[in-house]
Structures are given as structure tokens and as C-alpha cells.
């Protein structure tokens, strides 16, 4: 028997617990079956003592079963042939694998094992995602950091290896979004965000343009600049270009980049205001999406537009009741300075017309109303395209990071446009339907005859309050980065 002190290497194996065969009540994965044979049946004999306890996402560690792997984490996969529930809109097999891989890796980490090999669990891509997402945590500013696991795939199968590599890229992208979103706002200003993106996206296939305040004035982006007036931090408009799609028109992704949102003059309550360091979660997710698209060499043309500001109260700040103009000339009465995200997105949407895009997708931590409506279960979506929404929902089923559609009705549009003295109000007339009126506002700035999706990610930003995705742990979640990556890739099949 090996002690915790001498153990250096571990392996994560999966087991199903819904199939009952003669002389045993557990079903091993093919890899676990081979491992059991190599251990002269020790694995299965040990499991018989706890067979009723191996539930989905729960792991047990055994010692001394193998000469090379000192510790073995057996992780529950639940039923072998899980069926997709059309009401749940999640592939339960893939999601269970992510949870199981994360649980197995963390079980080994908790007993001092840092070198971990994970079997494919019959879906190497999902296993890779769960392993890396589940063992990563934000600890950038601790003087004594926890050593992260060194995770590898336990397989030489080329197909498994390819899928594992894909999963690693997507998990690394989401972890990048988590890191950017969780960084304190004094260390993630608009300027610092641009500097970090230059380092992370240092690729011959990515062109990075950082536009300043003078450029924004020339572009007529008064709405974008108005939000930045209350802060001493200079606004930046980050434009990223990825051109691997030949002569095709680009897809445009726009991410809200408010690096800290105090609400401006319409000051937010102090409780949990520190979470507003992640009000640039949309910016983080689109930048991380481009990171993955580049690593995976997806042959598309992308434009990433990220307006970056701080929204703070000061003597120079935008005031409730002020009227400003957006890039397209529309006048906006700002009745609430805490509804600032839609102002900077409005100018970015107008700017996107320059590229004659195939479609435009904006994503933002836009409204608290979205978090109230659906919590952390899904990202809210507003769109004028049934087809794009169908694709987005299909890929979200695979990623486990769901989306849910909300209405773009004239009912909401009328609430922000029926004004005598100006074209638009930046909020509706009441507290109800806040996410819907925000989307209706944005629709005014979408290029004419352009397919468009607006994703309100306020509920999925994090930290998690319900542990709906246990492999993400605490802190900002980086959602829905993997869904965006797969959405971009799915365009190749259209």
C-alpha cells in the first residue's frame, strides 16, 4: 500500500451504475475494464464495497492497485445510455462527463496527487473540458498559490487525442475569460485590458487595433464617450480582426467592456458592487472566443469589437436626463446612467455596419432583470433570426451552457421610442420587462437588414449561487465562451 507522501501519479477512471449483470452491480467503462484486468480484478473487488455510493459526479480514491498509478480516482458517470430531455436542452452524457472528470481530478488533488491522467470517459473532449475547468481557479494575487494539476489524457487513440486537444483549447479559452473577468478593476482598466489582449492574442492571424478617444470622436461615438466621462481612465475601442475565411463577409462579435460599473450618478447599492469588476464579461468572452478560433484554425472571417470604459460618478459624469447622440444620429435621453452598457454597444453596433457583416452578435452583462428572470440556468437571447437561434441552441445543448430566447416585440420597442423631445429613452417607463426594453433599444442601432443576436449574460457571469455547474467552482464563470466557440464553428456547416 502506498502512502500519500510517496504517491506521485494518479489516474481518473469512470464507472456506470445503472446496469446490473451477473455477479456484479457496476459497469466499467472500456478503459476501466482494461485497468481492472491489469490489476488482477482489484479495481472491481474494491468497488463492490461502495457500489451503491458511486453516484454521478462523486469520486472515490483507492491506493495500491497499480504499480505505475499510485492512486486511482473512480468517478461516477450515472446511467450509461442517458437520453436528452427536450425540456432540459442539455446533453446529459457530456455534462455528466465534465462533472465526473472534474470531481476525479480534484479528488486526486485533495490527497496530494498533482500528476493526473484522465481516461476519455467515452468522450475525450468533454473529459478535457471538465478536467481543466474543474482544476483551475483564480489566484493571481495570492502570495502562496496552490499548485494546479498537470492533467493528461490516458489514451494513445488518435481520435481521442484530437478530441482531447479540442477540449483543452475550449477550456483554456473559458479559463481566460474567467481570469479577465475576475481581475480587480484597478488592475483591469480599459488600457490594461488592451495590453493583456495584445499578449494573449499574439498571433500572425490576428490584427489588433486599439482606438483612442480622439478616434471615437471622429467616428461620432458620443454615446460611448459619454459613459466614460465620469472616470479618469481613458476609454478604448478595441478592434480585432481574424481573416481565415477567404473573401467571405465577416461575422461580427461585440462584447460589452465596462471594466467597472458603479452605476455613474445613478449609483448602484454597495452590496456586491465589487462583482461589477466583471461587467466586462462580454468583452472577456468574445476575446476568449477569438483565442480558441485562432488555436483551432477555424476558417472564418471575424471582427471582434470591444468598447471599453469605466462607469463612475464624478463632476464630469453623465447625468440622468442628459440627451446625447449615437453614431447613427439618433438622440438618446439617458434617464438612468446605470443603463450604460446599451449606450456603448449602440455605437459599436453602428460601427459594425462598416464591414457589411453576415451577422452581428453582441453579448453583455446588460440587465439585472435577466438574472431575476432565469438565474444562472441560461444566457438570454434576443434575435431577429430564427435560423441563427436554432444553431445557437443546438450548440449550447452540446456545451451544457444553455441559451433561452426572449421576445423582440413592438410592445417593448414602443416603450423606449414614444417620446416627444428625443428619439429614444435608454430605459423603459417601468421596472418591468427590463431585459426586453434593453434589447429593443439595441435593435435601433443594428445595421439595416442584418441578422442579429443579442445575448444578455448577466445571470451566468458568476459567482455561482446554485452550483449549477460544479466544475466551475467559485468566482466568475467565463460563460458562455464555449457556446460562442461552437457557434462560430457551426457556421461552416450552414
TrEMBL record:
Keywords: Aminopeptidase, Hydrolase, Protease. Residues 336-343 form the Cytosol aminopeptidase domain. This is Cytosol aminopeptidase. Its EC number is 3.4.11.1, 3.4.11.5, 3.4.13.23. It catalyses: L-cysteinylglycine + H2O = L-cysteine + glycine; Release of an N-terminal amino acid, Xaa-|-Yaa-, in which Xaa is preferably Leu, but may be other amino acids including Pro although not Arg or Lys, and Yaa may be Pro. Amino acid amides and methyl esters are also readily hydrolyzed, but rates on arylamides are exceedingly low; S-benzyl-L-cysteinylglycine + H2O = S-benzyl-L-cysteine + glycine; Release of N-terminal proline from a peptide. The keyword Protease applies. Belongs to the peptidase M17 family. InterPro entries: Leucine_aapep/pepB, Macro_dom-like, Peptidase_M17_C, Peptidase_M17_leu_NH2_pept, Peptidase_M17_N. Pfam families: Peptidase_M17, Peptidase_M17_N. It comes from Henosepilachna vigintioctopunctata. The keyword Hydrolase applies. GO terms for cellular component: cytoplasm.
Amino acid at each position: 500500500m502506498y502512502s500519500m507522501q510517496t504517491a506521485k501519479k494518479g489516474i481518473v477512471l469512470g464507472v456506470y451504475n445503472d446496469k446490473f449483470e451477473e455477479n456484479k452491480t457496476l459497469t466499467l467503462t472500456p478503459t476501466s475494464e482494461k485497468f481492472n484486468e491489469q490489476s488482477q480484478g482489484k479495481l472491481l473487488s474494491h468497488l463492490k464495497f461502495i457500489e451503491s455510493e458511486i453516484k454521478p459526479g462523486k469520486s472515490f480514491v483507492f491506493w495500491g492497485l497499480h504499480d505505475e498509478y499510485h492512486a486511482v480516482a473512480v468517478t461516477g458517470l450515472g446511467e450509461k445510455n442517458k437520453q436528452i430531455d427536450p425540456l432540459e436542452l442539455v446533453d446529459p452524457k457530456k455534462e455528466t462527463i465534465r462533472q465526473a472528470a472534474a470531481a476525479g481530478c480534484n479528488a486526486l488533488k485533495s490527497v496530494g496527487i498533482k500528476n493526473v491522467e484522465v481516461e476519455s470517459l467515452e468522450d475525450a473532449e468533454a473529459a478535457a473540458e471538465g478536467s481543466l475547468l474543474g482544476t483551475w481557479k483564480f489566484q493571481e494575487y495570492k502570495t502562496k498559490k496552490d499548485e494546479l494539476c498537470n492533467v493528461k489524457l490516458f489514451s494513445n487513440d488518435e481520435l481521442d487525442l484530437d478530441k482531447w486537444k479540442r477540449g483543452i483549447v475550449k477550456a483554456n479559452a473559458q479559463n481566460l475569460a474567467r481570469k479577465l473577468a475576475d481581475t480587480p478593476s484597478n488592475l483591469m482598466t480599459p488600457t490594461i485590458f488592451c495590453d493583456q489582449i495584445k499578449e494573449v492574442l499574439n498571433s500572425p492571424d490576428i490584427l489588433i487595433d486599439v482606438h483612442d478617444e480622439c478616434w471615437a470622436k471622429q467616428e461620432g461615438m458620443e454615446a460611448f464617450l459619454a459613459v466614460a466621462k465620469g472616470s479618469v481612465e481613458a476609454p478604448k475601442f478595441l478592434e480585432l480582426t481574424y481573416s481565415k475565411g477567404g473573401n467571405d463577409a465577416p461575422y461580427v462579435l461585440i462584447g460589452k467592456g465596462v471594466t467597472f460599473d458603479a452605476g455613474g450618478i445613478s449609483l448602484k447599492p454597495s452590496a456586491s458592487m465589487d462583482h461589477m469588476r466583471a461587467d466586462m464579461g462580454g468583452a472577456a468572452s468574445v476575446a476568449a472566443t477569438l483565442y480558441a478560433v485562432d488555436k483551432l484554425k477555424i476558417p472564418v472571417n471575424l471582427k471582434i469589437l470591444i468598447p471599453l470604459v469605466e462607469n463612475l460618478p464624478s463632476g464630469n459624469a453623465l447625468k440622468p436626463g442628459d440627451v446625447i447622440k449615437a453614431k447613427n444620429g439618433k438622440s438618446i435621453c439617458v434617464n438612468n446612467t446605470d443603463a450604460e452598457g446599451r449606450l456603448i454597444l449602440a455605437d459599436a453596433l453602428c460601427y459594425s455596419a462598416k464591414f457589411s457583416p453576415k451577422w452581428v452578435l453582441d453579448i453583455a452583462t446588460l440587465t439585472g432583470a435577466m438574472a431575476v428572470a432565469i438565474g444562472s440556468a441560461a444566457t438570454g437571447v434576443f434575435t431577429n433570426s430564427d435560423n441563427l437561434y436554432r444553431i445557437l441552441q443546438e450548440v449550447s445543448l452540446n456545451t451544457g451552457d444553455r441559451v433561452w430566447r426572449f421576445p423582440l416585440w413592438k410592445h417593448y420597442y414602443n416603450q423606449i421610442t414614444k417620446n416627444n423631445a428625443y428619439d429614444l429613452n435608454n430605459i423603459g417607463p417601468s421596472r418591468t420587462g427590463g431585459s426586453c426594453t434593453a434589447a429593443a433599444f439595441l435593435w435601433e442601432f443594428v445595421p439595416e437588414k442584418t441578422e442579429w443576436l443579442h445575448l444578455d449574460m448577466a445571470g451566468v457571469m458568476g459567482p455561482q449561487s446554485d452550483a449549477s455547474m460544479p466544475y466551475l467552482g467559485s468566482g466568475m464563470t467565463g460563460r458562455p465562451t464555449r457556446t460562442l466557440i461552437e457557434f462560430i464553428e457551426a457556421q461552416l456547416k450552414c
